[in-house]
Amino acid sequence: MFDTGMLELLGKGILETLYMTVVSTALAYVFGLPLGVVLCITDKNGVFPIPAVNKLLGFIINFLRSVPFLILLVFILPFTRAIVGTTIGSTATIVPLVVAAFPFVARMVESSLKEVDGGVIEAAQSMGSSTFQIVYKVLIPEAKPSLIVGAAIAITTILGHSAMAGFVGGGGLGTIAVNYGYYRYQRDVMTVTVILLVIIVQVFQEIGMRIARLSDKRIK
Amino acid sequence: MIVLRNLCKTFDTSEGKIEVLKNINLKIKKGEIFGIIGLSGAGKSTLVRCINLLEKPASGEIIFDSMHMGDLSSKELLKVRQSMGMVFQSFNLLQQRTALRNVCYPLEIAWVPKDEARAKAIKLLELVGLSDKLNAYPSQLSGGQKQRVAIARALATEPKVLLCDEITSALDPNTTRSILELLQNINRTLGVTILIITHEMEVIDQICNRVAVIHEGKVVETGEVREVFLRPRSDTAKQLILPKGKEIRNMTGKRCLRIIFDGNSAFEPIISNMTLECRAVVNILYANTKSIDGKAYGEMLLQLPDDDVSIKRIFAYLDDKGIFYKEEELNV
Prior knowledge:
The complex is a heterodimer.
Chain A: H1 4-41, H2 51-65, H3 69-75, H4 77-84, H5 90-114, H6 118-126, H7 131-142, H8 144-164, H9 172-182, H10 187-215
Chain B: E1 2-13, E2 16-28, E3 33-37, H1 44-51, E4 59-64, E5 67-68, H2 74-81, E6 84-87, H3 99-109, H4 114-127, H5 143-155, E7 161-165, H6 173-190, E8 193-198, H7 201-207, E9 210-215, E10 218-224, H8 225-230, H9 235-241, H10 245-251, E11 256-261, H11 270-278, E12 283-292, E13 295-303, H12 308-321, E14 324-328
Parallel strand pairs in B: 3-8, 3-9, 6-7, 7-8
Antiparallel strand pairs in B: 1-2, 1-4, 4-5, 9-10, 11-13, 11-14, 12-13
Helix pairs in contact in B: 3-4, 3-5, 4-5, 5-6, 11-12
């Protein structure tokens, strides 16, 4: 049943899944982190309040977040093709994954940064810190443990989405589960892919929480 | 050093505008320790935040070191803030940085080279008595130690003035005393002007030269600490200096006398001699002596006998001894 061919396939699936997940998460943070910072500081109680910008960004993010992933995936196919040249395979899946994840990441970053004690920010302001200095010397370092927990949640969510993309030929473990487990009724293959996905999620989550705990200087 | 002229501040709330500060006029001299005391909600914290423009005043002028704070560009304001240290009630240390790196923070902001900043931070932590805690995180420090780090941090940029907002309110009496001693040392050795906001008379008593009493956003009394202590004029000052006022009211049935001692007479057995010489019995309702600027000051509240002749003799005796006294209303 599990000949070398299947094992090779599963191995390739794992690598593809990890590739999609890690690259998508990284890109989602490239866009989501600055956006989260902007959301946090432009709030009316933030360090650089611009309520109009804040409301507009909030609206766009809520809009993107309200589209279910599978629909978004299909909806932006032309956009995906324009960027990667194809709509099939793991590299093509990265595009919808990033589009779906960065608004989510922005909100996670925003909420982490808003946890930073207002008194500490006030102290930084009293010492003559610029807005930029407050962001990269106070907000981000002080929120680091919370940001890392957020990243662990983001990476596992993106992993789940990447498996969903299996239905439209997205590659990775999701595609294997759909092609063998669903279309060919190979329940054993299905079970193995599910177990593999669960293990990957657990590992990411555990690593994330552990790094967060180690980096937090408040609980020693 | 700091001049506040007609300073007003309002807050917009859902129930309309609230006037927090009303026409504040204050002058804080270079090198002094100036206290601002008031009950909770009097506007003290808002007042101190107006000085470095963490709160924007509605009107009025703030002059710091002959600069009009309101006229500064936002860039200049950041620069000026570096010459004003601020210490808070809740310490407000960066939780993810060690004590040493907390003290380095304002120096990083001011673009001081790393090695120089580090050396300076180590010196400052030595000054506040924490040379063994350089690499401790705030969560590993006690309240008093955290406040010492915060003071070292506020001093890092060699500020001309230190703004202290209720810095001892979260500390126990012993720690409060040691933190105040530290501030006094800093004032003497570094010549830093210190402005202290507090609701505790003990704080003013222990280290301030001059004090302003603030009530409902208005300055109701200003003066030398000893003056305000000896002859409090405003109700707020009386309330703060005589916190036991309520009990006195319950105990006094008749005429009442406040005796005020200056530096020399507090150590003479005035009351004993007086009762012997006048052959009049008095009831001590309240007594409090303190050391201000190294000299002893004190006051007592006496219940007088129900006999006009004895009262006259008591007055004559006190006049003779040159002791300041005055008859008090019963509802002080």
